Amino acid sequence: MKKIIQAVKGTRDFYPAEKAVITFLYQTIREVSESFGYQEYDGPFLESIDLYAAKSGEELVKEQSFVFPDKSGNLIALRPELTPSLVRMIAQKQRQLHFPLRWWSFGPFWRYESPQKGRGREFFQWNADLIGAASPEADAELAALLASLFRKLGLGPDQVQVYVNNRRLMEEELRVMGIPDGLHEIVFKIIDRRDKLADQDWQAYALDLGLDGKQFSAVQGLLEDRELWKKSPELPRFFEAVDALGAADYVAYAPRIIRGLDYYTGTVFEAQAVSSTVRRSVAGGGRYDNLMADVGGDPLPGVGFAMGDMVLSVILKELDLLPPDRDASPARVMVTVFSEDTLLASYQLAAELRAAGLDVYSYPTPEKLGKQFKHADRVGARLALVQGPDEIKAQAVAIKDLASGEQKTYPRSEAAGAIRELLDKPPAA
RNA sequence: GCGAGAGUAGCUCAGUGGUAGAGCUCCGCACUGUGGAUGCGGCUGUCGCGGGUUCAAAUCCCGUCUCUCGCCCCA
User: Fold this and answer.
1) Is the CB of A62 less than 7 A from some atom of nucleic acid strand B?
2) Nucleotide nearest to A404 (CA to C1')
3) A117 Cβ within 7 A of any nucleic strand B atom
4) Region A312-340 average pLDDT
5) Which of A263, A293, A318 is the endpoint of a domain?
6) Residue A293's domain is classified under what CATH number?
7) How far apart are CA A316 and CA A323, in angstroms?
């Protein structure tokens, strides 16, 4: 084999079967987003590094972004997330937009990380945001939107859950426990790692980061309190609204959910697979009430989430929830070419059928019919049409159903109708 | 950045020092107006790359690159 330049690490080649998965997700996401009244938008794929420097969190900007200088020396980043672009876009047109607004987006993002299962360096992300409403009910709508996608994809509440917590609640609790404000970020980091470490290791980690024994057991107790949400002024309303939206089965309280991004201010949530070979979150989001003011806009509350395509795809594949026949030709009908002399007649026939609204392709060269039938079968066509000298003489077309093996000859004028009928029939077993 | 595993035909992989293999795919024929099934035949390799040990290396050693999985972090 000749040397082939390798694909860039962490990127994927989207052969038709893989591209079909992305398209399927995009379509399903569009349907769900639009059913909640969200409008599609997008930001640039390239952004100034300064956009992220402010608020995205050190790690994300310094370690995980693809950054390069342009010809004038400005540092440009391939977008690692969308929220900062969204916030800028809104700040720029704040007076022209009608709030609250609901926007969604689906596009590529880049992060410089080491690739592994469910994670690459180039991935797609669904973003949905509701800007200009500060209520817990608005938070609930986003959680319900996420749950609706799962339901639509065929993922049940026993397979994926949206876990919810509230940062203000956690901060208040820490304060009550006598943990100084300066330690809160550290405690959040400790909580965030609860699931990833064994009990002993987790305790050691916590003490190592500066908690004393008493504070540690207090934090431990906090994480075991399944009823903690009742102390929040927001979460009871949140859960009532989730229930009203019909998504209660997908949404649960989990005190361990904190989220890494610095800009979250209130309710945060994270979707996780209940049982899967990927122990990685499917989606994450939350409320960010200060972000708009931080980038220089008028203060405006917002809530939103992002969902990557990679973990979701792994789960859908594991549960066999991806659409079948992803590698099949979109044309279910192939016109064979009998001979050099009849080639153009076959092309005409194909064009005629396309004009009648069918998806049809013609074999491009006069090969042996056997080879052409085999090709039709392999690429997933349902019907193979033959128009040889006999058919041309009789103004007819022979149509073979490759699924049943049955073949009939129809007058050419009736071909389109006959094809439609045959395609509607379920393939014989 | 750290740790582990893997790189052999287009694909999946076997091959633990002695002539580089299998299955699938592909191509041809049986079957020149008809696919799937079957049978027969055929094509395809710097054994990731570089060095070392040896009479002899896909195999042992060293280095290196890439991929996969995990850690970190996160979608």
Assistant:
1) no
2) B36
3) yes
4) 89
5) A318
6) 3.30.930.10
7) 10
Residue A1 pLDDT > 60: no
pLDDT of A62 reads 64
CA of A280 to C1' of B5 (A): 22
ipTM: 0.83
A405 has a pLDDT exceeding 80? yes
Q: Which residue segment(s) compose the domain that A249 sits in?
A: 16-318
Average pLDDT over all residues of chain A: 89
- Separation of CA A356 and C1' B35 in angstroms? 26
pLDDT tens string A298-317: 889 999 999 999 999 989 98
- Spanning CA of A322 to C1' of B13, the rounded length in angstroms is 27
The reply to whether A122 Cβ lies less than 7 angstroms from strand B is no
Nucleotide nearest to A6 (CA to C1'): B66
- In this complex, which residue's CA is closest to the C1' atom of nucleotide B74? A260
Distance A315 CA to B6 C1' (A): 24
Q: Is residue A3 part of a domain?
A: no
Long-range contacts of A68-74 (CB under 8 A, 24+ apart): A74/A48
CA A408 to C1' B31 (Å) is 22
Pair (A26, A55) in one structural domain: yes
Digit-coded pLDDT (tens) for A264-299: 889 999 999 887 777 778 999 999 998 888 777 888
Q: What is the pLDDT of residues A207-238, one digit of tens each?
A: 877 788 888 888 888 888 888 999 999 999 99
CA A416 to C1' B11 (Å) is 39
- Report the C-alpha gap between A301 and A36 in whole angstroms: 19
Q: Which residue is nearest to nucleotide B46 (CA to C1')?
A: A1
Q: Is residue A166 a part of any domain in this protein?
A: yes
Give residue-wise pLDDT tens across range A164-187.
Answer: 999 999 989 888 888 888 888 788
Q: What's the domain count of chain A? A: 2
**Per the domain annotation, does A325 fall within a domain?**
no
Q: Which of A358, A370, A328 is nearest to A17 (CA)?
A: A328
The pLDDT of residue A219: 86
Residues 239-268 of A with CB under 7 A from strand B: 259-261
What are the φ/ψ torsions at residue A407 (nearest 5 degrees)?
-135, 135
Q: In chain A, count H helices and then E strands.
A: 16, 16
Burial class (CB in 10 A: 0-12, 13-18, 19+), A185: exposed
Which domain CATH number covers A355?
3.40.50.800
Question: What's the CA–C1' distance between A312 and B22, in Å?
Answer: 36
Quick check: is A10 in a domain?
no
Is residue A222 located within the same domain as residue A103?
A: yes
Task: Give dist(CA A86, CA A367) in Å, integer.
Answer: 55
What span, in angstroms and rounded, lies between the C-alpha atoms of A416 and A360? 11
